[in-house]
């Protein structure tokens, strides 16, 4: 099993571990619910070094990115980031990722842990036609410092001013790559660097009572924030339009060719299902795989959990386009009422529903 | 960690029972609650429900997952722990006391099957063997 450089630190902090796609990662350090609410109310630090970092260099790096991503890097400036997906030729989602633009000839991509082979093969097979090279950077780690107090905390620890860095921008300081991005629906930063540097930041955070947060809370935070988990809310069998990600398929430049452009254009016009938020009005807990039923129509919960912040069960569900307002969910042979909602449920500590 | 009380009997599916004459109290072990993580919802049986040994009698849901609670013995539900509806976390904080699930009235004839269950010591050594 793979371990990050912080494994011993997690162990010392009382972490309970989980096998996450072959990585032995902290699920929680005692209380997932407390960790979750710490991120909503103050700040916490995550080790997400299991994620994959790819760097792209070359005179056609921008052209390559414009071809392989559904979103268009032309709309971002140097020093900015963009959320996108990559798809197969049919428009099925291989993975979602964040791309960071240093300049037209240098980009960085951070993608999920579980999809490494597919993503790596995808870049390898498509890059041949471009004057561009890429490397995978397994030796680098990633920390996420998230929560309303994350900016002040990180400014103190790194002794730098971060006010100029808006959401989805990044900078490089003293061998660290610092971006204002995250997966929690709160303000927050992700820091990429060599293990020694990151170990130092981790230790400083812990010593300043910024608590470690496990993957358990990471999952409940992202569900509240209405963010998809690849492999759960979407797979290669799903297109972006049925995954609440139509907004990351950018058709605005007619002249741009990108993978599956024709198919995605067709899908956009014919798509009949959607990914929405669901809120259970009754006692119980939504779980992935439960059926959503209304009249003769059926959908399915893709992610379901108990929301520690709302203290109710919420989830994401893929349902027919015409299903609105209310429906029933089948839990252990009982039909319970669910509200159908647009996501997110929570943004920056505020309940949106 | 909660000590494993010596007057309880255990199932390999991590339920415990406590016998008091013909009344049997059922709950889940400290190990089980620890594996489940923070309990957020408990679905209890109704008073009067009759179960046969091995039936699914309750459901316990943590943030992470749902898990069935099986009755280790045949009998009729005579009381349920209503406080778990408002305070499901008692399953975590007091698995052997306040976090009990339900009580069964068991006939003399069915009580005999209790002998086949594990003692606290046997249960502990089963857990040690797993770890």
Record the SSE blueprint.
The complex is a heterodimer of chains A (353) and B (131).
Chain A: H1 7-12, E1 16-20, E2 23-28, H2 32-41, E3 44-47, E4 52-57, H3 61-68, E5 80-87, E6 93-103, E7 106-111, H4 116-127, E8 133-136, E9 141-146, H5 150-158, E10 170-173, E11 176-179, E12 188-193, H6 195-207, H7 215-224, H8 261-270, E13 273-280, E14 291-294, E15 297-307, E16 312-320, E17 326-331, E18 334-341, E19 346-347, E20 350-351
Antiparallel strand pairs in A: 1-2, 3-9, 4-7, 4-8, 5-6, 6-7, 9-12, 10-11, 11-12, 13-16, 13-18, 14-15, 14-17, 15-16, 17-18, 19-20
Helix pairs in contact in A: 2-7
Chain B: E1 9-10, E2 15-20, E3 23-28, H1 30-36, E4 39-43, E5 50-51, E6 56-62, E7 66-70, E8 75-80, H2 83-86, H3 90-93, E9 102-105, H4 108-111, E10 118-119, H5 120-130
Antiparallel strand pairs in B: 1-2, 1-10, 2-3, 3-9, 4-6, 5-8, 6-7, 8-9
Structure annotation, total helices of chain A: 8
Level-2 CATH architecture of chain B: Beta Barrel
How many domains, in number, for the residues of chain A?
3
Radius of gyration of chain A: 20 Å
The largest sheet of chain B, given as strand count, sense and whether it forms a barrel, is: 7 strands, antiparallel
CATH superfamily of the largest domain in chain A: Probable tRNA modification gtpase trme, domain 1
What do you see in this structure?
The complex is a heterodimer of chains A (about 350) and B (about 130). Chain A is of the alpha+beta class. Helices cover about 20% and strands about 35% of the residues of chain A. In chain A, helix 2 (about 30-40) packs across helix 7. The longest helix of chain A has 13 residues, at about 195-205. Chain A is globular. Chain B has helices at about 30-35, 85, 90-95, 110, 120-130, and strands at about 10, 15-20, 25-30, 40-45, 50, 55-60, 65-70, 75-80, 100-105, 120. Chain B is built from 5 helices and 10 strands, in the order βββαβββββααβαβα. Chain B starts with 8 loop residues before the first strand and ends with a helix. The interface of A and B includes residues 27 and 313 of A.
